[in-house]
Every structure is written in C-alpha cells, then in structure tokens.
C-alpha cells in the first residue's frame, strides 16, 4: 500500500479524494442550514393550519383536540397576529423557559449558519420561532418548539449528506484516477520504459522512441527524447568509427615512421656528397624527413590522446615562417605568394616544432583554398606583441570557409573545409596552441578571405627560457 501511495497515481488519488471531501464539507454547512430553515418553516406552516382550523370552527375545542393539533404541528403553542391584535390561539404547558428566539423574517445566510451551529451545540431546550404566515393568514406567527427533535433531524440530514459526499468523492476520485492514469501516467511510464530500454543498448536505432502522445507537453518531451537519442546514436557511431580510424592511422603512422627512419639514414649520407647542390639540399631534406617522423610520432600520440607538453625554447619567428613558406612552395614565384610581415629579430618563447606544425597547417589550408579558385592569391603572415602576449596572424585572399566548416572548425574529422580533407589539422593546431596556454581563433572568413590569429601568453608558468 505504501509503495502505491508513493506513486504519482496514488498521490493523485489521495489528493483528489481529499479535495472532493473538502468541497463537500464546505457544501455540508449551508446544506444543513437550509434544512434547518425548511424544518422551522414547515413547523410554522403546520401551526398556522392548525390555528386557522380552530378559528374557522369559531367554537371552543376540547383540551384533547388542542393537544392533538399541537402534536401534529410539533410545537408547544401558536401565537397569531391579525388586525394588529396578538392572539394566543393554541397553547400547552412549556416544560422549560424559552432559551432563544429566532426571527426568520430577517435572518440572512450568515445568520442562519450561525444559528445552525448554536442549535447543533445545544442538545436540549425550547426555542421561539417567528415568521410570516402564508396565504395572507395574518401579519405574524410565533411558535415555541423543542430543540432536540430538530437537532436530531439536522444530524441525520448531515450524515446523509456526508455519506452521499463520500460516494461522490470515491466515484470522482476513481474517474479522475483512471483519466490521469490513461492521459499522463501511462505515457510517462512509456517514456521511462523507452529510456531504460535505450540505455541497455544505446547504439540500437530500433530502440529510439516514436512520439505518439496526444497531449502537447508529453509529445514535446517524446520528440526531445527522440532527437537526443538520434543524436547520441550518431555520436556513438562516429566515436566507433573514429576509434577504428584512429587504430588504422596509428598502424599506418607506425609503418610510415619506420620507412622515414630508413630514408633519414640514406639522407644523412647525402650531406657528405661532393656535389654542392646535393650538399645544400641535404639539410633541408633531412629537416623535412625529421618533421615527417615527428608528425608520425605525434599522430600516434594523438591516437592515444597524449599530446606531449611543449618544450619551450626561444624561437626566431621570422626564420620559422620562412621555413614554413619554403616547405609549402610559396617562394620563388607562383600562383600563390607569401608575404611575411615580421621583424627579423622577433623572438618568442614556444615549442618550435609544435609551432611549425600549427603554422604549417594554417598556411597549407590557405594555399589549398586559394588553389581551388584557379586564380592568384596571397598568404600574409604577421606578428606582434603586447605586454602579456604575442600574437600571430595568418590570412589569405581565398574564397572563405563554408558555413558548415565554421560550425565545427576545431573539431577533429568535422571541421574540414576541403573535399577529401580529414578536418584533423585545425583540431591538432588548436590543441597544440592550448598546450602553450594560448588560443587559436578565427578572426574573419568571407569572400575576401580568411584570417586566423594565434595568441601565446608570455607568462602562465611557461617560464623565461634563456
């Protein structure tokens, strides 16, 4: 029983029964007051009929007949006022003095309720009742009657009203309980059942709820749950695919790292070549292979979600940018040019390899965006510093990013702006910049081009590396 009362249905049933009973109790008091008024008016009417019968006979009656008339009317005496004359028409001995007089001619609703409570509290006694005769039978009629029988009749009437109220309360509560159970409880239980079933196998699309509720609020809840479940299934599937892709990328990076390591050994031998051109190209080739090996290792680390912390050193920024531009074939003339607006002696504190990867990703994306237009364009690299941070801007004159790419710009495998791209470059770049305590933001992207800004703090625990 207690378990049922702790449910929504049980509590609603109790509240319904309680409120219906309260309403019936509020109805009970006026109902008993109206019953009392009718009881007294009926006594006045019977008393008037008895007195008029006596007056019509116009002769004396025996005491036995008088007593019978008074008994039929339920009163002790009858006083009529006719033609401004007050006349005791019928009378009998009154056992006790009259306690109170009630004048029904001037009694209002509140007065009737108050008098009802007084009669219910006093068990015995004699009361006087004054009223107006019916059918123009005079100006006023008075009777004296015993309070006990009236009180008993009032209690019996109140008991009947309470029993009837209880029956109405139970029937109403049952109907409301069934209605609420059908309209609210069962749909809510259905939603809970779907949620429990979905939690057991969230990847099973068959367990997604289908909105069927007719009530608007419940249907909106079901639709919201359906949308959440659908999005969660997509996220879980994407997570599974990303995990599989991460495993494949890790294997490829592992094998590619071994291949590049072998290539690095052969490139080391080129540095000792007698050919001047080969000797000049060998360091750049070694640098590219070294960065490729580092990229493979970083990819393996990214797959384990363990990007290494930055190794902070002093980095000549302009020289680093020139290396990036040269690696992306932006020097020596071509459809895509590169403009570096950085002081030659500007030095920042950062991890040179990680910053190279960040700038390389941004410059490569800019170059590919310009090349898709088939027209000439320019990539601009600029930098500056304030009291608390360095800033680096990378802008281009390309076509700008599509709206879909801007929504998930720094999310792995979702922010790719180029067809066939993985969307991993900006995600890795943002993560590397955050590792420096900085921030990578998109300043603008429109038909005139795209511009990113890198902010690197001068403090925040990086320390001053000499």
TrEMBL record:
This protein's record includes keyword Transmembrane helix: yes
Catalytic activity: ATP + protein L-histidine = ADP + protein N-phospho-L-histidine
Chief site of localization: membrane
Source organism of the structure: Cereibacter azotoformans
Enzyme Commission code: 2.7.13.3
Family matches, as Gene3D superfamilies: 1.10.287.130, Histidine kinase-like ATPase, C-terminal domain (3.30.565.10)
Protein name, per record: histidine kinase
Root EC class: transferase
Keywords annotated in UniProt: ATP-binding, Cell membrane, Kinase, Membrane, Nucleotide-binding, Phosphoprotein, Transferase, Transmembrane, Transmembrane helix
Histidine kinase domain residues: 251-460
Lyase recorded as keyword: no
Membrane topology: Multi-pass membrane protein
Domain of life: Bacteria
Localisation per UniProt entry: Cell membrane
GO molecular function, one term: phosphorelay sensor kinase activity
GO cellular component, one term: plasma membrane
Parts of the chain that traverse the membrane: 12-33, 159-180
